[in-house]
Amino acid sequence: MKPSMKRIVVLCFAFLTMAAPAMAGELNLSVAASLKEVINELTATYSAQHPSIVFVKNFGSSGTLAAQIENGAPADLFISANTEWMEYLKEKKLVVAASEKTFAFNSLVFAGTTQKNVSSMNDLPALEKIAIGSPKSVPAGEYAMTAIKKAGIETKLANKLVMAKDVKECLMYAEIGEVDGAFIYRTDALQAQKAKLLFVVPQKLYPRVVYPMALTVKAVDNNDAKAFEAYLQGTEAKSVLQKFGFILK
Amino acid sequence: MKLHIDVEKKLGAFSLQVKADISGEKTGIFGDSGSGKSTLVHLISGLMQPDKGEIILNEQCLFSTHQKINISAAQRRIAIVFQQPMLFPHLSVKANLLYGFKRCHTENRLIKPDALIDLLKLQPLLLRGVEHLSGGEKQRVALGRAVLANPRLLLMDEPLSALDDTLRFQIIPYLRSVSEEFRIPYLFISHSMTEMQLMTDHILEIENGRCIDETTPEQLARDRMAKSQKGYLNLLHLSSPRHENGLYIYTWGRNTLFISAGQQTEKSLFELSSREIILFKKHPEAISARNLLECRVAEMFESDERVGVVLSANGEKIVAEIVRQAADELNINTGATLFAAIKASSFRRLA
Amino acid sequence: MLLAPEDITAIWLSIKVALTATVLSLPFGFTVAWLIVFKPFKGKVFLEVLVNLPLTLPPVVIGFFLLLLLGKNGWIGKLLIEYGIALIFTWKAAVIASATVGFPLLVRSIRLGMESIDRQLLDASRSLGAHWYDTLLTIILPLSLRGILAGSSLMFARSLGEFGATIIVAGNIPGITQTIPLAIYDYASSPSSTTMALSLCMVSVVISVTVLFLHELLNRQLDRKRAL
Question: How many contacts, defined by CB atoms under 8 Å, are there between A and C?
Fold first, then answer.
């Protein structure tokens, strides 16, 4: 190798290895989409208090996040919008079972810009289009689908359901008015500008919305990760959650 | 047929300005490549629009800047035979032939397909696709297609230039018979003197986008004798030879000609360059050339540095070409008797 | 191979959307190609750029523009709503998305076919009495058939795989707009559905191969006809 070439290679190596220590204060979070705003505020506060910590946040549908972790995506903390995907990763031994805690609870609502009179599940078949998270990977969609089936309107709603990739996209569809309404969380409805909260989905129609969180096996010895998880259980975090409309018990 | 053209067209650096009145059935347009012949064809047919001027065919105005008339090419009823046959590749020979015919008004359909197919001997080709026809067959079909459109005027734009010599002179009889049988006037464009001689009775000479002369084929051939590569080309129509000792013996009027490249066919067309004729003032006792004709000088003309001697051999005309010096030396004058020697191999058979 | 009933619907829907997009685009594609190849006019460059634009833009961007244009508050959408026509989140939107994305491919192929037509053939046709529309139908159309065929196949295949613009403007509605790519995407977001996704992928491949096959066959037919 020519001397100048050699120098470039050495520099590259040095740069890469130098970058590694910089990653020591980095925390990778894989978080359910519906927690976007609350986690953004919580990480901002935490960063201010702990300047050496840098957060890398990845929001998406819990199913997608689980798939990513299964395929080796770097994540230290996983917060899911249902127990299914947490169980999935526990089974695959990709999360530390002992570190599992409950982060928050939520409830499912139906919101939209439609002018029609919608006050219960039975009013839904009268609508043209309804946005719902894809049940295959979005917990909000799964909850909604369960509620739809339990309410007995599944066949009536066939061909009306627009699949969204996560609950935020549902909200977006509801906001732009291209659908009559969408199944979203109460916390999302509170963020909505144009879509009105039309009714709360009766809890008896679907299982409780639980947000379990856990450390991934990669982060089993990561003290920063453990410390942040503990923070998320603390009183400061809980008051922020309440502010955003999440249920704590 | 009467065609009045007075047009101007500029194409890049080239400019065309032609003013002419053409009448008659067999007119030629002669010029070298780049002289503007093709452009003229496109302007007359309506495929290209002149910058200004007028075109009037048989009292009908086809184009006039002044009167703002521009009849589309589709309505002019002027058919074209191009240099390349331009047969429609996706249609059969029959469909090609009938293309123009179908688009001709019923009252104008004077020429019927059957008559034409017979004349041009196209019967065996009718159902074939056009891709695998020979060059000559394609051009015959192209001719048939143009004629069947029942045009008022047929423009033939170097129709034979893409064919080899044998084919060329095989097609000419078809061109002539079609014109004679169906009485369609034509404009024949070419840069070949021989084609002009055979196809036209008067010629427009075009050079650099200008019409420089209106003349006859004979006159043109004489004028170009010195410039042309092969001098003045005498054309002889001969028939039914005897074959003896490797030579073909033809009767030419009251003369006899011995030709090497003859053929045992009914009719043949031969070409003899004026430069291949050697003139003697006195009868040469013994000579290797097999043809020795006693002639009388009917006429003499000048062409640049050469002298054309029009000889009459028992009533048949032939033109010999000699340099001025020779003419002076031999003291050749009209009425003088000369002997013309021509080698048997000098005759070139065209068809 | 596992195929759920929704998958079968997705397959039929994909074929339906691709076919409709191709058939609807053909007359426009042919006209545009004809204008570009044979008609000189001012501003032709802009037409060419416009036609080729979807080729260079990411499909999601195209989808976004279509949404702006055709949505409830869009410039054209507003007018359509008055006539009771809603396009967003319907299979018609999927057709429009596929048509927009595939249009440049269609025009390109037909253009190539048309450019190979010897202009003198058109001169011959005109001199034999054919007006421009006659020449268009009897000479240009038959001789561009190869280009039309190639363009249609390309467009059909492209439509089958269309995702980015489709998901934005037609949404992912099983039974209505969930075409094969959208269905696979749904499966792919969930780690437990890999086998289902694979089955659909196989079907997608089979359809594409069939289309290419048919295209080849038709080409041979065209060649054989000419060689007679």
Answer: 64
Residues of chain C with pLDDT under 70: 1, 225-228
What distance in Å separates the CA atoms of residue A63 and residue A216, rounded to the nearest whole number? 15
Nearest chain A residue to C81 by CA distance is A178
Report d(CA B216, CA B281) in Å as an integer: 31
- CATH of the domain spanning A108-200, picked from 3.20.20.80, 3.40.190.10, 3.30.70.660, 3.50.50.60: 3.40.190.10
The sheet carrying B291-303 orders its strands as B278-280, B337-342, B291-303, B306-313, B316-323
CA distance A160 to chain C (A): 7
Residue C75 Cα distances to C49, C65, C72, angstroms: 22, 11, 9
Nearest CA-CA distance, residue C185 and chain A, Å: 9
Residue B140 maps to which CATH number? 3.40.50.300
ipTM of the complex: 0.84
Q: Where in chain A is the domain with CATH 3.40.190.10?
A: 3-105+209-244, 108-200
Q: Which of B171, B197, B223 is the last residue of a domain?
A: B223
- Which tokens sit at C80? 């359509």
Find the CB nearest A63 among C71, C172, C191.
C191
With an 8 Å Cβ cutoff, are B90 and C142 in contact?
Answer: yes
Chains that touch A (3 or more CB pairs under 8 A): C
Of B244, B234, B322, B225, nearest to B279 by C-alpha is B322
State the architecture of C5-226 in CATH terms: Orthogonal Bundle (1.10)
Binned at pLDDT 50, 70 and 90, residue A18 comes out as low
Write out pLDDT tens, residues A28-60: 999 999 999 999 999 999 999 999 999 999 999
Judgement on whether residues B16 and B163 belong to the same structural domain of the protein: yes
Total-model pTM: 0.79
* C221's tokens: 């037919």
Per CATH, the number for A3-105+209-244 is 3.40.190.10
Among residues B197, B223, B249, which one ends one of the domains? B223
Minimal Cα distance from C169: which residue of A? A178
Please give the residue range of the domain that contains residue B54.
Answer: 2-223
Instruction: Flag if A162 and C173 touch (Cβ within 8 Å).
Output: yes
Taking the C-alpha atoms of residue B295 and residue C97, their distance in angstroms, rounded to an integer, is 89
Q: Which of C124, C131, C226 sits opposite B90 (nearest CB)?
A: C226
Kindly report the CATH number assigned to the domain that includes residue B333. 2.40.50.100
Query: Is B75's CB within 8 Å of C139's CB?
Result: no
- Give the CB-side neighbour count of residue B92, counting CA atoms within 13 A: 11
The size of the B-C interface in CB pairs under 8 A is 72
pLDDT in tens, B253-311: 888 999 998 888 888 889 999 999 999 998 888 889 889 999 999 999 998 889 999 99
Same domain, residue pair B141 and B200:
yes
Number of domains observed in the structure of chain B:
2
Which residue is closest to B104 within chain C, CA to CA? Answer: C129
Same domain membership, residue B181 and residue B73: yes
What is the nearest CA distance from C86 to chain A, expressed in angstroms?
9
Q: Choose from C117, C121, C128, C221 for mutation: most chain B CBs within 10 A.
A: C128
CB contact burial C129-147 (16+ within 10 A = b; e otherwise) = bbebeebbebbbeebbbbb
